[in-house]
């Protein structure tokens, strides 16, 4: 049983109760979080995680709300909204240390204004830097993991040991396509309090603002022709089971007739079959059932199993 008075004493006026999570997810689905707290500084984020893990209170750290499907039943604990927005550039080394709650687009524009490039391939990908590193976001043959030098994380404690802050190099993350050691660990231990990224050091490169912005515009133009932008979607829903074009999840789903599948207001995009779209008032249950039917279609047609790139959050 969660002690509300104890939570309010620790978090103060920034603790909210019974917050509807669909307003914070790109799919526009999700039930009520028992408690909701906005962490605006690194100290806030570390303090919240340390307190909740010590008290053994369930929590989930929410970034931009992409690549997740939050249950209609909501989250039985505390949702921590990561709003850590610090950015520090090093002109001499073309490096940047960026808070995990910084939006990808903001970092790219701030970097371009200083003639720093390298991450143009991320333009048009929504979400935060923490989420991008966690899922090794990328496009056009590049991934953010290629630019990570190190990251600072908080390792949650419990009622017997304190939380601790550590720094790991990129090698520790064991980046693979659209995944990392952190994401794989969470998949294996979904009910544990797992490490959270606080900040990331990225290696950029010297360029010119006009060149950087031109690349960003070109990349976004390409995305608009091949992906359903501006709709309620979590991004690519499934991982590609292989490296070739004919092993791409979108190709397999398209050839298996998945674009014809619909569950309530949850549909498969006509532009790209690996995008699930909330057409209007789809529920999380609609989306998960649609995903199951999409997997069945590919399994029946190609004898191939698709694994979700998105994560299911909350009580199912």
From TrEMBL:
Source organism per UniProt: candidate division WWE3 bacterium CG08_land_8_20_14_0_20_41_15
Protein encoded by which gene: murB
Catalysis performed (reactions): UDP-N-acetyl-alpha-D-muramate + NADP(+) = UDP-N-acetyl-3-O-(1-carboxyvinyl)-alpha-D-glucosamine + NADPH + H(+)
InterPro entries: FAD-bd_PCMH, FAD-bd_PCMH-like_sf, FAD-bd_PCMH_sub1, FAD-bd_PCMH_sub2, MurB, MurB_C, MurB_C_sf, Oxid_FAD_bind_N
Protein name in UniProt: UDP-N-acetylenolpyruvoylglucosamine reductase
GO biological process, one term: cell wall organization
Matching PANTHER family: UDP-N-ACETYLENOLPYRUVOYLGLUCOSAMINE REDUCTASE
PROSITE patterns in the cross-refs: FAD_PCMH
E.C. numbers: 1.3.1.98
Active-site residue list: 178, 236 (proton donor), 309
GO cellular component: cytosol
């Amino acid at each position: 049983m969660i002690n509300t008075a104890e939570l309010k004493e620790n978090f103060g006026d920034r603790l909210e109760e019974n917050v509807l999570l669909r307003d914070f997810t790109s799919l526009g689905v999700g039930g009520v979080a028992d408690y909701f707290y906005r962490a605006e500084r690194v100290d806030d984020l570390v303090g919240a995680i340390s307190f909740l893990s010590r008290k053994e209170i369930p929590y989930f750290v929410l970034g931009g709300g992409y690549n997740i499907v939050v249950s209609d039943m909501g989250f039985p604990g505390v949702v921590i909204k990561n709003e850590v927005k610090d950015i520090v550039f090093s002109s001499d080394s073309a490096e940047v240390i960026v808070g995990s709650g910084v939006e990808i687009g903001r970092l790219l524009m701030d970097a371009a204004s200083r003639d720093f490039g390298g991450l143009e391939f991320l333009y048009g990908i929504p979400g935060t830097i923490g989420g991008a590193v966690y899922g090794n976001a990328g496009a056009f043959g590049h991934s953010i993991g290629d630019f990570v030098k190190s990251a600072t994380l908080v390792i949650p404690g419990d009622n017997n040991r304190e939380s601790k802050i550590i720094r790991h190099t990129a090698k520790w993350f064991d980046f693979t396509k659209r995944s990392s050691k952190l994401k794989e660990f969470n998949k294996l231990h979904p009910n544990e309090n797992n490490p959270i990224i606080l900040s990331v050091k990225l290696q950029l490169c010297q360029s010119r603002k006009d060149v950087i912005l031109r690349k960003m515009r070109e990349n976004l133009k390409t995305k608009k022709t091949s992906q359903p932008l501006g709709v309620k979607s979590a991004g690519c829903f499934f991982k590609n089971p292989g490296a070739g074009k004919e092993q791409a999840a979108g190709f397999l789903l398209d050839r298996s007739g998945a674009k014809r599948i619909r569950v309530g207001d949850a549909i498969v995009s006509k532009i790209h079959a690996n995008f699930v779209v909330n057409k209007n008032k789809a529920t999380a249950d609609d989306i998960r059932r649609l995903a199951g039917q999409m997997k069945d279609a590919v399994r029946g047609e190609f004898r191939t199993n698709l694994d979700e790139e998105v994560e299911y959050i909350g009580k199912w």
